[in-house]
Design a protein that fits this description.
CATH superfamily: Gcn5-related N-acetyltransferase (GNAT)
CATH class: Alpha Beta
Number of helices: 5
Strand order of the largest sheet: 1-2-3-4-5-7-6
Shape: globular
Order of helices and strands: EHHHEEEHEHEE
Helix content: 25-40%
Structural class: alpha+beta
Distance between the termini: 26 Å
CATH topology: Aminopeptidase
Amino acid sequence: MNEIRVVRLRPVDWAACREIRLAGLADAPSAFGSDVAREEAMTPADWRARLTRRSTFAASAPHGLVGTAAGIPGDVAGHAELVGMWVHPGWRRRGIGGLLVGAVIDWAAARPYRAIDLWVTVGNDAAEALYARLGFVRTGGTQPVRENDPSLLELEMTRPL
């Protein structure tokens, strides 16, 4: 694990962010509220703006980025939200997901948030198990992954800070 560092991506890192995000969308399209076509159409200015609005963290290996997760202000007052979590399939089960989620938890805990929420796609048992190991619990809330496809649902989980 010594070869992995978690770094915070800044607007100047937009191209690397775009590359890892598109890889995640291509690998796990049902895990995100967006799709490859929509994000391929984003301009460099769009990517820089996203990195300004979100606190985006990436797992960096010697050859490049292998995972990402971000923190944003949540919809509930006093809550942050973990979004965009993804680890390259070849790098899974090495603790990288925990490192990324931990970075977002640390980011939220350093701010005036008292909890962090996330949404996980129904059937993504490995991700839900990771979140549970890190202290997240189901709230009972559900919603469609995408507004235009109500057949695929995600479950809400939360964790106090």
